[in-house]
Design a protein that fits this description.
The complex is a heterodimer. Chain A has one helix spanning about 70-75; strands spanning about 10-15, 25-30, 40-45, 50-55, 85-90, 100, 110, 115-120, 130. Chain A is mainly β. Chain A has a 7-stranded mixed β-barrel. The radius of gyration of chain A is 14 Å and the shape is globular. The two termini of chain A are about 20 Å apart. By secondary structure, chain B is of the alpha+beta class. Chain B has helices at about 45-60, 65-75; strands spanning about 10-15, 20-25, 30-35. In chain B, strands 1-2-3 form a 3-stranded antiparallel sheet, with no helix packed on it. The chains are: A mainly beta, B alpha+beta.
Chain lengths: ~140, ~80
């Protein structure tokens, strides 16, 4: 499943509303990490290059994940259909990589065409904030 | 704290561009509708606090830890 940054010609994501915890940053460069067939990307702030997040298309670890984006968010990001959206999950590695988790509750949703992005809290379904990447 | 009394379908205007409308009051629950500009993020307060914490914990992943993670992924057939 490689639906991430290769689709974006200039992978600069614009978070108009910032990201919770980091209200001062708005723009991130999305850079593929490691081998081409790996799922991971690094999101680096353009305002503060020391601020990075590891992100992954959730389907590469959670094949049943089907986030439902609410209408208000779709409107804010200018998403006309599900195909317009690129969904990424922020990964937290913590002390031990075997315990790494992905934030499925609040995925990053990107409009593939405009690169407008937001961290969106899902309001439907019961999805975890910390989903173990490796079986739990 | 400013305290205002509103009825269902009445609103509060904040800063000229944010409108909070009381949609429904049922028992101890109140449903609110919020209209805000695109650059204003709106969250339930407790979710916001949790997200802030989670994002801070996720920030600045160590490169060697990312490498370990990728090695782990390659070892697991299901990922």
């Amino acid at each position: 499943m490689t639906m991430a940054s290769t689709d974006l010609e200039v992978p600069t994501l614009n978070f108009a509303a910032g990201i919770p915890g980091f209200p001062e940053v708005r723009q991130f460069a999305l850079v593929w990490w490691g081998d081409e067939d790996g799922p991971f990307s690094i999101m680096t702030s353009l305002e503060d290059s020391s601020l990075e997040f590891l992100v992954v298309p959730p389907l590469s670890f959670f094949p049943d994940y089907a986030p439902e984006i609410d209408d208000d968010t779709a409107e804010r990001l200018g998403l006309a259909s599900a195909d317009d959206a690129l969904v990424l999950a922020i990964v937290t590695i913590g002390d031990d990589p075997t315990g790494a988790t992905a934030n499925l509750l609040a995925p990053i949703v990107v409009n593939r065409h405009t690169r407008e992005a937001a961290q969106v809290v899902l309001t439907t379904g019961d999805v975890p904030l910390r989903a173990p990447l490796f079986g739990g | 704290m400013l305290v205002l009394t509103r009825r269902p379908n009445q609103s509060i205007m904040i800063g000229g561009n944010i409108v909070v409308t009381v949609l429904e009051v049922r028992g101890d629950q109140v449903r609110l509708g919020i209209k805000a500009p695109r650059d204003v993020d709106v969250h339930r307060d407790e979710v916001w606090a949790e997200l802030q914490q989670a994002n801070r914990a996720a920030a600045l992943p160590d490169r060697s830890a990312v490498e370990s993670l990728e090695r782990l992924r390659r070892q697991k057939p299901d990922a």
